[in-house]
Amino acid sequence: MTSVMSGVAGDFAAALRDPLVTPPAMLSAHAAPAASTRFCVYRNNVAVSLIGALEARFPATRRLVGDEFFRAMARLYIKAQPPRSPLMMRYGDELPGFIARFEPAAEIVYLADIARLEAARTRAYHAADAEPLELSSLAALDPENFARLRLAPHPSLEIVESAFPIVTIWASCTGEAPLTAVEDWRCETALVARPRLEVEVRRAPPGAAAFLEALARGMSFGEAADSAAARAKDFDLALIIASLIGGGLLVPADGVKQMETIHGYLA
Amino acid sequence: MNYISASPALLPARAGVGFKPEHFGAIAADQQPLGFFEVHAENYMGAGGVPHAQLRFLRERYALSLHGVGLSIGSPEPLDRDHLARLRRLCALYQPESFSEHLAWSSHGGVYFNDLLPLPYTEETLAVVAAHVDETQTALGRRILIENPATYVRFSQSDIPETEFLTELTQRTGCGLLLDLNNVFVSARNHGESALGYLASFPLIAVGEIHLAGFFDASEAGAPLLIDSHGAQVADEVISLFEWTIEQAGPLPTLIEWDNDVPDWPLLLAEAMKAQDRLRHAERGYARRLDRRAL
């Protein structure tokens, strides 16, 4: 594409991205305020809307560092990694990685993991629908058939592993749990999922990550249990069943494929 | 492809509101006395969950306007084919009565700015925008509406007035227009021009929907500057423009757009009902004039 139009958009875009770049020369204003002042309306709109999107997506992260710090960090993130798509629901997927490398936040060692948990919550909110497997529907199965079941993680489910008690910290930052000192400071793995309409965050029982990974690789229920038991020392199948099936986090393996076809309009 | 139909309005000529998820409970409690709901297309491009559950609910009970904010039709760069495909699937899934986008750009060089940015009005930009509108209408298989922007700057290269640019766009592509009267007022004030003068040269025959919204006054002494904030009640001056427009063109689907500092549902509904009263009034006057003409 030619000339004037490309030049205008290119100069305009460059000055939007970097406040040190002078507003484009071809802007005109019939009277005060000056064109450069008027241009700042656009610059401000862009900054406010993008910072606002990150604030809305990462409330616990923001609470941990305070509004002022979060806004300053968001500005740097936006400059380093501006949105690449008009789907604002995806904006901030890379913020946890940015925080992990962000020196001024290094003191809050668990901050990046809290951001990972929050990013997963938005993805779960928008993930494909799938009817969770009901524990009651399996009541009649004998152990052998139970072991042969082919199940899959719910399409909304993400596992967020951490060396810190992230579920406890996240819950106290969002008002889901009272704000108290964390007494039992140990690592927690979060299961983030939306079995129906509500996004839920829960602590994973031991070995859940290994078990889910095995299911996702196509193993049967029994094979996945054996595989996880071999890898996680305190693996407890009863806890896994109560948490994953009881919590609506598993679906029949072919059910997932059907739902993906129905919702195939997502790019 | 040229989409020409007798009337660009498939939405009912009644008042509607921009849907906000925080109002869902109040909306679902009762059948609302509204002609339609409008949603931003980009908020429904996830695979499932609450957004689609709520949109299905609204779709089953009301006429629906799908309003895109991210296609960047006014960009010199090619349209984003993936985004166009997402819009096509959304239109196929929900069959909205109307799809609209903006005379603006929002992406450049692979970066999305999440704002509606201005373009110069020239023969060159007209050709590009017309090609983009054409491509969009072909992809969606329907006539679309293009909205006039709120602008804060102009370009020294512009040599076509905005109303002429939009008129020409409708003639080249057969698209309809979404007349945002708050944008008309904001732009006119910002550029020291007459809003009524703008409307007098606006092709009202092509209008398929009207937007009403509130603005933020950032003026300083001797330096008027209004910002299209969608965060307040509709200003009296904009209401006057609305009355003038529907007096001329007859009642049209009219949306109350309130996206920031969103009020409680009763206040938003009351804003829509004020617009509804004016539409009813205009309908009576319009019918009387048509009767006289028929005699």
TrEMBL record, chain A:
It holds the Pfam family DUF2063. Residues 11-99 form the Putative DNA-binding domain. InterPro entries: DUF2063 (IPR018640), DUF2063_N_sf (IPR044922). This is DUF2063 domain-containing protein.
Automatic annotation (TrEMBL), chain B:
InterPro entries: MbnB/TglH/ChrH. It comes from the Bacteria. Belongs to the UPF0276 family. This is UPF0276 protein CR492_06295.
